[in-house]
Amino acid sequence: MENWDFTGSEWWDHATETLKFRVENSESGQREVCGITQTAIASCLGSEDSQEGAELGFDNNRKHILIRAIRLIDEGVCNDEGEYILTTDNY
After folding, report:
1. Span 37-50, mean pLDDT?
2. Which residues on neighbouring strands pair with residue 49, listed in sequence order?
């Protein structure tokens, strides 16, 4: 976990209501695209179920979300596009 961090800025995939972000391992140089659905932020982190609520929930829980995203990377749980997306089912 200590070698991973967010890199760049976050962006919305409006079609899937997913807030996406990039992470990078400073030791290995590995970079991955990750995300967390708006529903997962609302259900699992207790934020308002809106884009604005999800952004606030993300900002307030960055470290926790990073830990969960790294778990998905370690387990190889990615979608067809190779992205590691946190949902209510895998959070």
Report:
1. 95
2. none
